[in-house]
Design a protein that fits this description.
The chain is an alpha+beta fold and 335 residues long. The chain has 5 helices and 15 strands. It has one domain: Lipoprotein localisation LolA/LolB/LppX (outer membrane lipoprotein receptor (LolB), chain A). The chain has a 15-stranded mixed sheet that branches.
């Protein structure tokens, strides 16, 4: 008996072609020249961190609670000042210096800068006025907190005490409303995820503009960054907070970095010791002009030139209420 096998050649050729293509794909998938997919395992250290969730109301409550929990600060710090930027064409890095920062809500701050344990600058502000004593130059400076001051080489007017206060002690946030809109944004940089509160406000001419941006690290909901803006959208301060530690039951950052683009300087503050919510008398924030120091009166220049300033919402200048009185010796502050 003869068996005849008939093969449909077109169908056989199609099957052979499909098999060849499948074989080639499997073979060349292991060849880097022809690879169409590559899978890489991300190290655990670089994977996205766990992220907590919170809504706008919770973030606002958290911020205001953090602000309310901090009424006074007594800090022993190390300053690292940098002047200039890419805008000026040069950058000057200054030697690290020790110092102290005292804050009393709502608007009192004093900052002392030491070099080799000798006071080289002493600054206070009461919310309206600022005073700066510069012993090496034998100058005593008085100005208004938010007046416009042209840069000067003979006296340090770029760094003012209220700039430090903005960075060290955050302002609260009002209740969201049509006149006080707050927008929540999400962001991610590398493994870290953030919530950002965007605070809007109206300028003097009625236009809406960004006032503040506040970053919350979603890993623990700590506030890790803040940007403060001027009327025309320019960045007034860009502040970052890191290395949080517990001081007497209060969590507080031990490294604060801020930049002031309009004044072309940046300041890094490392906190070595902190005393939080301890009593601070008002007279520790009153600076006395040394008898032989030259008075540099910037406030009068502001009035004569018509420069803008902000009126103190808390009433008359504290210095006018208390008068100039001798300050405690720096040894009374933490060391």
């Amino acid at each position: 008996m003869t068996i005849v096998v008939r093969i449909q050649l077109p169908a056989f050729k199609q099957l052979l072609t499909a098999t060849q293509i499948l074989f080639l794909l499997i073979f060349f998938s292991n060849c880097s020249w022809f690879r169409v997919k590559k899978t890489t395992q991300i190290p655990v250290s670089k994977r996205a961190l766990p992220a907590r969730t919170a809504d706008q109301a919770e973030l606002v409550r958290l911020l205001n609670s953090t602000v309310q929990d901090l009424q006074t600060l007594n800090l022993a710090v190390v300053f690292e000042f940098t002047g200039g930027s890419i805008n000026t064409g040069e950058v000057a890095n200054y030697r690290e210096t020790k110092g102290f920062i005292l804050i009393k809500k709502p608007n009192l701050i004093r900052t002392i800068v030491l070099a080799f344990n000798v006071k080289v600058m002493d600054m206070v502000s009461n919310g309206t006025d600022f005073y700066i004593d510069v012993p090496p130059k034998n100058k005593f400076i008085h100005g208004l907190n938010y007046q416009k001051i042209r840069p000067r080489k003979d006296i340090p007017v770029s760094l003012r005490p209220q700039h430090i206060q903005q960075a060290i002690a955050l302002d609260p946030v009002g209740t969201p409303s049509d006149e006080n809109p707050i927008v929540v944004e999400e962001d991610q940089e590398g493994p870290k995820k953030y919530y950002i509160l965007n605070l809007l406000g109206k300028t003097a001419v009625g236009d809406w503009s960004m006032r503040r941006k506040i970053w919350f690290d979603r890993f623990d909901l700590n506030i890790v960054r803040q940007k403060i803006f001027g009327d025309h959208g320019q960045i007034a301060s860009d502040i970052s907070y890191s290395d949080f530690k517990n001081f007497e039951g209060k969590l507080y950052p031990t490294e604060i970095n801020f930049k002031r683009p309009q004044e072309d300087y940046s300041l890094r503050i490392r906190i070595n010791k902190a005393r939080i919510n301890k009593d601070l008398e008002d007279d520790k924030f009153v600076l006395q002009k040394p008898p032989k120091a030259e008075l540099v009166e910037l406030a009068e220049e502001s009035k004569m030139s018509g420069s803008e300033s902000v009126i103190d919402p808390h009433g008359p200048s504290l210095s006018r209420q208390l008068g100039f009185r001798r300050l405690p010796h720096p040894q009374e502050f933490p060391n």
